[in-house]
Amino acid sequence: xxxxILFVDDEPAVLDGLKRMLHKEFxxxxxxxxxxxxETIDAFGPYSVVVSDMQxxxxxxxxxxxxxxxxxxxxxxxLLTGYTDLNAAMDAVNExxxxxxxxxxxxKEILAKALTTGLVQHRLITVEKELLxxxxxxxxxxxxxxxxxxxxxxFGRSMRIARCVRHLVSKFGLPSPWRFEAAAMLSQxxxxxxxxxxxxTAYVGENLSPEDQARFAAHPQVARDLLSxxxxxxxxxxxxxxxxxxEIPQSAPESRGAAADAIVFGAKMLRxxxxxDNLRMKGLSDEDAIANLRGRxxxxxxxxVEALAGxxxxxxxxxxxxxxxxRLTTGMILQQEIRTRAGMLVVxxxxxxxxxxxxxxxxxxxxxxxxxxxxxHVPV
Length: 380
Hints:
The protein is of the alpha/beta class. It is 54% helix and 12% strand.
C-alpha cells in the first residue's frame, strides 16, 4: 500500500535492521533521535505513519510523537519499545494519541500488519478530510453566490479581503488554508441585513449616524450566528466575529481539526486585511496603504504587516477591455460599477465574475435595463 513510513530510534543499528526487514513491502525512511526525526519530517514529510522508540535521550518517544501530532496531525503514530512501564505507555497514549503500542522485539508479521493497518487508517483520515473540505467549500461557494446576488457591495469587499488573506496565507505557509480564505469570503455575510446606502457609506469611511454605526458594527456577530449552525464552520465563524474588535483575544474556542492558536492568527489576518481594504477604498495605493499600516504595527504586529508587502493585484496579468455582457467569462474582473437605467446598483467595480453573476447580468441585459457592454479586466 502506498504511503511513506518513518522509523525513529536512538540506535542506528536497530534502524538499519528495520529498513532491511521491511524495504521490500514498504517505503521506509529512518531518523536517529527525535530532533533529527523532526527535521526529516520537515524536509521530506509528511509521513503516513511514524513509528518511534520510547527510550531515547533528550526527547523520549511520547514527547516526540506529541510534537508530530502538533505539526502533522494526520500522521498515524505508533510506539515500538521494549520499555513496558505502564505509566510511560499511558503518557504516550495521552500526549501523542498513539494508534498502536507495540513491544520489541516485534515479529515481522505483527509489525507489517500494524503498518498496513496504519496506512489504511491514514488513507481513511485523508479521504474523510478531503471530502469534508470539498463539501464545506461547496457550501461556502453557495453562500458567496447568494451574497453576490443580495449585496454586490458586500460581495465585492469580501473578494478584495480574500485576495489579501490568500497572500498572507501563502507567506506563512499555513495548514488548511481553505479555512482562512473561507473566513475572508464570508466576512461580510452579515451585511445582507443592512441598507445598501449604509454599506456604501461605511465602506468608504464616511461617518454614520449612531444608529447606523451600531447596526454596521453588529454585522460580524450576525454572520457568526448564521455560520455557527453549520458543523465544522465554528472556527470560521469565530474569526469573522473578531474582525472589528480593537484587540483580538489570545485564545479561541477549540475545534476539531483546528488549533486555537491558528484560529487566533487567522482572526488577526482577517482584521489586517480589512484595515488594508479600508485604506484602499480611501484611494491609497497598495504601497501607500502598507506604509500607513507600518505606522500601526502595535495594532497589527510587524510580522503580519511586513508579510503584506509585495501583494500583487489580481489583475496583473490582465488588460482592460470593453466586453459584451454575453462574452463575459468567470474570472474576469469588472472595472466599472453597473447600474440599471433607473440608477439601482447591480454590481460594484472590482467584482470578480462568477457563474451566478453571469446569470444575473444576462437577465438584466435581456430585459434591457443595463448597458450591453462593460469595462473589464480580461486575461491575456
